[in-house]
Amino acid sequence: MAQYKINCLNKISPLGTDRFGDNYAIGDNFADAEGIMVRSANMLDNEFDKNLIAIARAGAGVNNIPVDRCTNEGIVVFNTPGANANAVKELVIAALFMTSRKIIPAIEWAKTLKGNGANVGKMVEKGKGAFAGPEIKGKKLGVIGLGAIGRLVANAAQDMGMTVLGYDPFISVDAAWGLSRKILHAKSLEEIYAEADYITVHVPLTPDTKGMIGKDTIAKMKNGVRILNFSRGELVDSEAIIEALATGKVASYATDFPSDEVIGVENVIAIPHLGASTPESEDNCAVMAADQLKEFIENGNIKNSVNMPEIEMAREAGHSRICIIHKNIPNAIASFTACCGEAGINIENMLSKSRKDFAYTILDICDDATDAQLDAIKNLEAVIRVRYIK
Prior knowledge:
- Helix 7 (173-177) links the parallel strand 7 (163-167) and strand 8.
- The protein has helices at residues 14-17, 67-72, 85-101, 103-111, 120-127, 148-159, 173-177, 189-195, 215-219, 238-247, 279-299, 332-343, 371-378, and strands at residues 4-8, 24-27, 35-38, 54-57, 76-78, 140-144, 163-167, 184-185, 198-201, 225-229, 250-255, 268-270, 320-327, 347-355, 358-365, 383-389.
- The protein is elongated and about 90 Å long.
- The chain is α/β, with parallel strands linked by helices and 390 residues long.
């Protein structure tokens, strides 16, 4: 009989679900599942069973998950940053060419020549001038955000002969290691706006980044700039981009997040969110999400959570594990150790990490803990959730 239950709210690649093994039951409607795997299903209004301890999003964005509510209920939310990065990178590179060479209008125009027989060749030569556009080689590309996707885009564009300026004040050490030495470091967004012939945005949507490409920022850009948005539609102000396209300030705008306002506007390339729509990407996301969920359920370790700190402590044979999600307040850890001491629990190893107002502590203990001992920890003021893993 399976020990754990996982609900899949969307179709998840078998390469992911098969990683759980015989100790898990995979379904879509368990009332008391410990874990959930999801892609795009809307969970914002879902009520969660008390057994649910983790949600794994097979993708990067988590706007379909009530993250704040999950945090307050002690539910860890994972995503899979980088699993679909290559797929998105390839589409961004395609968009570089499509915004330059008027490839899509040219293809549509070529369809109108059907039925002209031997005259098609002459018509092509006469009409092709309307679809001329510049090469990207030698042009400047500004990459805003150098995470998993932005880094790949920057490196690929540089390999194709572009001068690449990258801007990311929060770049991680891992991302920096993966960035080509030839990428130029832009010290400000204003430097990107002033110098780039093409600008591609790869930042998360937050209150601070919403509408970051707007009337004021577009005014700082070069005339004829081409803008690519494959992160989130709301990063670009639709009214501002439409106005800039009409005046020629912006030559072309490509987005993977079409809205009613921009669809059909001249020089807008609206792509129906195909960035991660490859079988390879879906497989990668499913595998990564499953591994993270399985590791948390079985060992309490957390990697790539959007609401809890990253933390990993190796398991030692013969030790049980108490995992505590709690408020990040003074004396919380001292209260845990004091409670264990009073209950006669010997702590062999301990690791604690915080993330803003919340924290997560792992205690490895020598002997089994009783329900009464665990209840004593659960009743502490700072504690949101306690798990016991044998």
